[in-house]
Amino acid sequence: MISPLAFVDPEAKLGNNITVHPFAFIDKDVEIGDNCEIMPYASIMHGSRLGSGIKVFNGAVVGADPQDFRWKGEHTLCKIGDNAIIREQVIVNRSIHEEQATIIGANTVLMAETHIGHDSDIAEWCVLGNGSQIAGDVKIGFASILSTGAKVNAGSRLGDWVFIKGGCRISGNVPPFVIMAHNPAVYYGVNAMIMRDRAERFTEEEIDDIAKAYRHIYQCNVSLFNAVKRIQADIKPSAPRDAILKFIQECNNKIIALPKVDMYD
């Protein structure tokens, strides 16, 4: 059902069983999959690619022009995965790079007034709380949660299963499975409660090993160099342990909230 009071550009490609409410705006060069609903005053701008089963609430803007002076009008994209929910007044900017995309993963929920900057990549099953602000070139891992008013600065990376408490400001790399809180951000523990809700993914032994790994990193007052050595020696290989070590390696040993110690202590 497409309301006659909505604007849908003739060049837009719409799937089956789509509902477009009055005063919604769908631009040219837009593709929307089956079973989507676009609420009143929502805008789907050119370069947007929406999967199936997506609901875009009132006043949201998907595929807005990037807020970066490096963008000179190149054709860029914004991709939204299946079954995502985009609540009121959310803004998602397109990429600044030719034919590249800002990406929102399937089953992710962007709560009211969230802002996603250009070229950010939000994985599947994430929840971003009301008023979360994600700058450009941010990567957020699978099943991560940002509480109300969390802020993530440009170029930061968050691992899988991360929980960021309300109002926390992130500037850097957050390893997987942890909780971060306060401003400046500090390590607040392991995201065990959420991980236990997914018992098919994590055993109690794996959660204990994750907690032990982060005790070495954040609570033993040793350098990250030596914490990694301790993890390799003390904790038997497993998918979560290896994910922690891989993340640290890929970030060139640069993760946030580390204790201030000499490099080789």
From TrEMBL:
Enzyme superclass (EC): transferase
Pfam families referenced in this protein's UniProt entry, alphabetically: Acetyltransf_11 (PF13720), Hexapep (PF00132)
UniProt KW keywords: Acyltransferase, Lipid A biosynthesis, Lipid biosynthesis, Lipid metabolism, Transferase
Gene Ontology annotations of biological process type: lipid A biosynthetic process
GO cellular component, as recorded: membrane
InterPro entries from the UniProt entry: Acetyltransf_C, Acetyltransf_C_sf, Hexapep, Lipid_A_LpxA, Trimer_LpxA-like_sf
Residue ranges annotated for the UDP N-acetylglucosamine O-acyltransferase C-terminal domain, each copy included: 174-252
E.C. code: 2.3.1.129
GO MF term set: acyl-[acyl-carrier-protein]-UDP-N-acetylglucosamine O-acyltransferase activity
PANTHER family: ACYL-[ACYL-CARRIER-PROTEIN]--UDP-N-ACETYLGLUCOSAMINE O-ACYLTRANSFERASE, ACYL-[ACYL-CARRIER-PROTEIN]--UDP-N-ACETYLGLUCOSAMINE O-ACYLTRANSFERASE, MITOCHONDRIAL-RELATED
UniProt-recorded name of the protein: Acyl-ACP--UDP-N-acetylglucosamine O-acyltransferase
Lineage: Bacteria, Pseudomonadati, Bacteroidota, Bacteroidia, Bacteroidales
Gene symbol of the encoding locus: lpxA
